[in-house]
UniProtKB/TrEMBL annotation:
Gene3D superfamilies: MetI-like. The lineage of its organism: Bacteria, Bacillati, Bacillota, Clostridia, Eubacteriales. Keywords: Cell membrane, Membrane, Transmembrane, Transmembrane helix, Transport. Belongs to the binding-protein-dependent transport system permease family. GO terms for biological process: transmembrane transport. The keyword Membrane applies. GO terms for cellular component: plasma membrane. It is found in: Cell membrane. This is ABC transporter permease. Its main location: membrane.
Length: 308
């Protein structure tokens, strides 16, 4: 079949537009990352290994530290790291290493739940703003821009104040509902770009419906973008939980998380127990950096631009 005959049923395309779309094929191929380029991108082995180690430690925290992490040994307050207490103890005599292992459970759970909430919001708003007609599209775009103009920390504090109680679910909702805007804009940009690609026009010409296009074309392009955003959003969520706990509006202090551990830094500074701040902070920073490295690897591997 000739090219002119192939595009003839698409009444919205004239000859000039057909030439434009066909000319973009070579341009899109040049932008695609080649196999040689992909081979040069090194796999973040250390980051993946550390993340797997933290997940393993969170799942088997009861086996690795079979004691109550909140137990207060008043005769062992503010002890430096030793063979008995690998990460030392805090001002209340609690083992810091045990609190790190058990606190990883809730911190990772909050990160996972808030990332899922923000992804659902981003897919709903971003996908709708890309597919709906002009009036509704402009409303969603303006709504996203307004939410994006407000600092996320203020949104989290506001939402947490509305919910009143501090549970892992309320913290996850506060973080998730305040961090979907950038993801939504990226999803909208990707869908609008894919919708005008040549292979989508050809699929529409051959009778491909919306679900067929979503399964065969949109999903294959959006999955790398969603994977990249999920890893970076996961790291942001863990940092946000630690920030809320540090400000005193997160989970109660009797609930052990990495954020509540950092909240004890003021007491640690008074007793000069540097290990209470440094060691949990190292675990937090390494986890976030590993998640960002994984997201950056997916971005480079898939050829996703940062400024999309």
């Amino acid at each position: 079949m000739e090219v002119n005959e192939l595009f003839k049923p698409l009444k919205e395309l004239n000859k000039q537009e057909r030439d434009y779309y066909l000319g973009r094929v070579e341009e899109s191929e040049r932008k695609m990352p080649s196999r040689q380029t992909c081979r040069k991108i090194s796999f973040p082995t250390l980051s993946v290994s550390f993340l797997l180690l933290m997940i393993f430690a969170a799942f088997f925290a009861d086996v690795l530290f079979p004691f109550d992490p909140s137990y207060m040994a008043l005769t062992e307050k503010s002890l430096a790291p030793s063979s008995q207490h690998w990460s030392g103890t805090d001002s209340l005599g609690r083992d810091v290493f045990g609190m790190i292992l058990h606190g990883a459970r809730i911190s990772l759970l909050i990160g996972l739940a808030s990332t899922a909430i923000s992804m659902v919001m981003a897919l709903a708003v971003g996908g709708s703003s890309a597919m709906l007609p002009g009036f509704f599209k402009r409303i969603l775009i303006r709504f996203t821009d307004i939410c994006l103009s407000v600092p996320s920390i203020l949104l989290m504090i506001f939402l947490q104040g509305i919910m009143r109680e501090s549970t892992w679910m309320s913290i996850s909702l506060s973080i998730g509902l305040s961090s979907w805007m950038t993801m939504a804009k990226m999803i909208r940009t990707q869908i609008e770009r894919i919708r005008e690609e040549e292979y989508v026009l050809l699929a529409r010409y051959y009778g491909g419906g919306w679900f067929y296009l979503l399964k065969r074309h949109f999903s294959q392009t959006l999955v790398p973008v969603l994977s990249y955003m999920s890893f970076t959003g996961f790291g942001h969520a863990i940092t946000a939980e630690a920030t809320l706990s540090f400000l005193g509006i997160g989970l109660p202090l009797d609930t052990i998380t990495w954020g509540t551990l950092l909240h004890l830094s003021s007491q640690a500074l008074m007793t000069k127990a540097w290990w209470v701040i440094v060691i949990p902070g190292i675990f937090l920073v390494m986890t976030v950096v590993s998640l960002v490295e994984m997201g950056d690897f997916i971005r480079k591997r898939s050829g996703i631009e940062k400024n999309v």
